[in-house]
Amino acid sequence: MTETSFRHLLIDVGNTSLKWCVLNGADGAQHVESLPNQDELTALTQIVEVEPDMPIAISCVRSDEFADRLSHQLRLAGASRVYAASTEQGFMGFQVAYDNAESLGVDRWLAMLAARRPDTRPVIVVDAGTACTIDVLVGDTHQGGYILSGSTLSQHSLVKETDKIRFDSVTGSSVGPGSTTAACVVNGSWLALSGAIKQVLSDFPNAELLIDGGDAVDLIALGVPGTLTRGLVFQGLSIWLRHLLATRA
C-alpha cells in the first residue's frame, strides 16, 4: 500500500471531548468531527463497517477502561486493526524529559512528535483547552513543560473554592483591569494564561510558538505571538501509526 493510498482513522479522546478524522495518505486533508456524547459511536462504527481493514489509531487521555471499551466496540463493529498509542521513550529518536516517559500524557507526546523540527531552533507547543499544557523541545529532545488551568477551569475553580466570589458569565476575553468581580476573575484568568506563555517564550526568545486548543484563538487575539496550529495530535498519531505498521510489515 502506497503512502498516497493509505487511509487511516484517527481518534483523539480528550478529557471532555472525542474527535476523529480519516486521513488519505501521509498528508491527507483533515476533516475533524467531534462527538458530543462519547458513548455515541454510531459514526465511527459505520466507518468501520464499510472499511473494516482500515487501520485505526487511538490517543486517549481518559481512563484505560474507556480506551479498552472503545477498542472493544470498534472490534465488535468489524475493525481488524485497532491500535492505542502510548508515550515511548526514544521513539524515532525523540527523547522525553520525564524519567518515567509513560507518565507524560500521550496527547502531549504526539503533538510534540508532529512539531519536531530538523534544526535546533526551539519549538514551544501549547495546547490551551480545559487544561493548558506548554512543552518545549529542541530538535529531538523534550526540554520539559508546564501544566496550568485553562481559562474556564481557572474561573470555575475560584467560584468553587471561595465563598464570596460569585458572578454571572462574561463573554469575550481581555487582559485589562476589570471593574466588576466578573471581569476581574475572567480577565485575571486570561492574564495568567497569556502571561505564562509569554514568560516561557521570553526564556526561549528564538523559539517557534505553536498554539492549539479551544482557547488558542483568544490567546492570539490577546497578543500571544504564536501560530494557530490545528490537529497536532492527529498529525503525531498518523506518524506513530505509519511507523508502527512499517515496522510490522
What characterizes the major β-sheet?
5 strands, mixed
Count the beta strands: 10
Percentage of helical residues? 25-40%
Give the SSE order as H and E letters: EEEHEHEHEEEHHEHEH
CATH architecture assignment of the largest domain: 2-Layer Sandwich
Shape: globular
How many alpha or pi helices?
7
Count of spatially separate domains: 2
Radius of gyration over alpha carbons? 19 Å
Name of the top-level CATH class of the largest domain: Alpha Beta
Could you name the CATH topology of the largest domain? Nucleotidyltransferase, domain 5
Class based on secondary structure composition and strand pairing: alpha/beta
Q: Gap between N and C termini, in Å?
A: 11 Å
The residue ranges in which pLDDT falls below 50 over 5 or more consecutive positions are none
CATH superfamily of the largest domain: ATPase, nucleotide binding domain
Strand order of the largest sheet: 3-2-1-4-5
Strand content: 15-25%
* Average of the residue pLDDT scores: 87
Quick recap:
Helices cover 36% and strands 22% of the residues.
Overall description:
It contains 7 helices and 10 strands. The chain starts with 6 loop residues before the first strand and ends with a helix. Helices cover 36% and strands 22% of the residues. A hairpin with a 2-residue loop joins strand 7 (131-138) and strand 8.
